[in-house]
Design a protein that fits this description.
heterodimer, A: alpha+beta, Arc Repressor Mutant, subunit A, Glutaredoxin, 2 domains, 7 helices, elongated, B: Rossmann fold, Ubiquitin-like (UB roll), de novo design (two linked rop proteins), 3 domains, 5-stranded mixed sheet, 4-stranded parallel sheet, binds flavin mononucleotide, binds iron/sulfur cluster, binds FE2/S2 (inorganic) cluster
Chain lengths: 156, 413
């Protein structure tokens, strides 16, 4: 059964107290659910609906609008590489190609050992330190091939 | 030149309350609470000529004055820290390096408008910024700077952080309100304008992070002081985020009215590897591209608008001679096609068409008539939709073609 810990349930109550309307804390609760469960499935939606008092269909409709709420399991490390213009001008395409060749996957895919998923995403707000990517929640900036090699080697 | 919003960035532990206090922090809000009426605060901000740094450059004091003084329902401040405009990365620095400057700006704005609750909407990816701001808010509650009687005065203010979840459209002010209410971030039809009925149906002010970060200095030093910096209708400094093919990319606080030539060649060390400049995008990806011939246009709201582009978010993307404009155009249109919220047909279909046509041309599968088809589609995307994302796709697309048509023609049959 998918369920939050006591501590997380307290956090949900704290969140609810911050807003005058029932649905308002939903984005924050969805973040907590993704952190806890990895991704959102039918069971998670039922649980969030129960927890937030928002109908399940609405929870689903909101969650699927936003790109950060995972709808399926990803690899242990989710590489999100920026493909927008500043990163492109700084050589992001070469880095994408290098990672794809090295991991033998295309963007959107996960390695068979479930270690890495590669996604191409829009601007991350690191344009001055391009190219940039996020792995799980950490930023990695000023990327080049050497740096990418080192980063990947450190992720077991 | 005196730094205003970035003055604390290089201090050790700049994000801590004690550092902020040691630099004279929270004196401006105390001054407001002690000796200024809310209307005086609005007047001072009007006098400063401060214009919004989020995109539209709307006069801040005027925006605050649109909110009714008396309201039977609570009023709100929504702080826009969504920072999704490609090429923009400056609010992140304020959030991570000087959160208390933002909080003081929020306190003053709230006092001026009679607001008791503010929400800071931070894009979901900015985890460090989120944690830093949340901790700074916590420090303020502990000191009595937030909560029931702030600074021991008869004024109540709560500030909360709210995380976005990866949708550019939530940076649009009514999309942001929807998202703060826990819904899909789909912009609302106006009127009613947020100043009358916004967040939770209450009168609402929406301001960008950097805009609010200017406010404490304006109160401390006076609106006239601020108005004396920059150019007459474009007062003050702003944080320029420079990226792309440039030797020294980064965030620079400079006076409004500086030219692109000075910014790129003097401040940022010129085009990367000594290459020639092909063009630059002056205000985030939504701003129409400028050519190397337009380097002497001042980077302020009015001059850039007159030149057919816009100052937008202050994100300057530098493009050198080796870059393919059709490729940049395709990537730009892809972005808007991905981020359109889908409510308006012109935008939902238009962004997709433009993106498909640019990609077709860039990949060498296009025909000459596709170039004009893009212009035709774009002309139907402007001025007809719920929000201006549709225009934000059409305007740069038209500029890419009008200014670099030969590059598109070289690729088509
Ligand atoms: C599609 C779209 C995205 C926007 N994104 C942002 C953003 O990320 N940050 C921001 O401050 N303003 C953004 N804006 C502008 C806001 O709608 C609004 O004008 C601004 O936050 C007002 O604050 P200001 O007056 O202090 O600039 C965006 C506008 C549009 C149409
Ligand atoms: S213009 Fe586009 S993004 Fe804006 S409301 Fe309409 S469909 Fe949504
Ligand atoms: S364009 Fe890649 S971080 Fe902004």
């Amino acid at each position: 059964m998918k369920k939050f810990s006591e501590e997380k349930l307290k956090e949900v109550e704290r969140l609810k107290a911050r807003y005058p309307e029932r649905q308002a804390p939903l984005l924050m609760i969805l973040h907590m659910a993704c952190d806890e469960f990895g991704y959102l499935d039918d069971e998670a939606y039922s649980y969030i609906s129960e927890l937030s008092g928002v109908p399940k269909s609405k929870v689903y409709s909101v969650a699927t609008f936003y790109s950060m709420y995972n709808q399926k399991p990803y690899g242990r490390y989710h590489l999100q590489l920026c493909k927008n213009v500043s990163c492109m001008l700084a050589g992001a395409d070469d880095i994408v190609k290098y990672i794809c060749d090295k991991l033998n996957i295309s963007p959107g895919e996960t390695t068979p050992d479930n270690r890495f998923t590669l996604s191409l995403v829009e601007c991350l707000g690191s344009c001055g330190k391009a190219p940039a990517m996020i792995i799980n929640k950490e930023y990695y900036e000023n990327l080049d091939i050497e740096k990418v090699d080192k980063i990947l080697a450190g992720l077991k | 030149m005196e730094l205003i919003v970035s003055k604390n960035f290089n201090k050790k532990d700049s994000y801590k309350l004690e550092t902020y206090l040691a630099g004279g922090g929270y004196e401006a809000i105390k001054k407001c609470l002690d000796s200024m009426k809310p209307a005086d605060v609005i007047e001072e901000v009007k006098k400063s000529g401060l214009r919004g740094r989020g995109g539209a450059g709307f006069p801040t004091g005027m925006k605050w004055s649109f909110v009714p003084k008396e309201s039977s329902v609570p009023k709100y401040l929504a702080v826009n820290a969504d920072e999704g405009e490609p090429g923009t990365f400056k609010d992140r620095l304020v959030l991570e390096l000087d959160p208390h400057l933002l909080l003081e700006g929020i306190m003053i704005a709230s006092y001026a408008v009679g607001i008791g609750t503010a929400y800071i909407y931070i894009r979901g990816e900015y985890k460090k910024a989120f944690d830093t701001v949340r901790n700074a808010i916590e420090e303020c509650y502990q000191k009595g700077f937030l909560g029931e009687n702030i600074f021991g005065k008869n004024y109540k203010l709560d500030i909360h952080v709210h995380a976005g979840a990866g949708a550019y459209i939530c940076g649009e002010e009514t999309g942001l309100i929807e998202s703060l209410e826990g819904r899909r971030g789909q912009p609302r039809l106006k009127p009613p304008f947020p100043a009358i009925s916004g967040l939770f149906m209450g009168p609402t002010v929406i301001n960008n992070v950097e805009t609010l970060a200017f406010v404490p200095s304006i109160i401390n030093k006076g609106g006239e002081w601020f108005a004396s910096i920059g150019t007459p209708k474009n007062s003050g400094t702003r944080l320029f985020g420079v990226s792309g093919s440039v030797e020294k990319p980064g965030v620079y606080e400079l006076e409004l009215g500086i030219t692109a030539r000075k910014l790129i060649y003097e401040i940022c060390g010129g085009v990367k590897n000594g290459k020639k400049l092909k063009g630059f995008i002056p205000g985030g990806l939504s701003a129409p591209i400028m050519t190397a011939e337009e380097l002497d246009v001042p980077l302020d709201f009015d001059s850039l608008a007159k030149a057919g582009s816009m100052a937008g978010s202050g994100g300057v993307i530098v493009i050198d001679e080796s870059a393919d404009i059709p490729k940049i155009a395709a990537r730009t249109a892809d972005f808007y096609a991905h981020e359109s919220c889908g409510q308006c047909t012109q935008c939902r279909e238009g962004t997709r068409w433009v993106s498909q046509l640019f990609n077709k041309i860039y990949q060498g599968r296009g025909q000459k008539k596709d170039i004009d088809l893009i212009l035709d589609v774009c002309s139907n995307m402007m001025g007809q939709t719920i929000c201006v994302l549709s225009d934000a796709c059409a305007m740069p697309s038209i500029a890419f073609i009008k200014k670099f048509r030969h590059e598109f023609e070289a690729l088509v049959k």
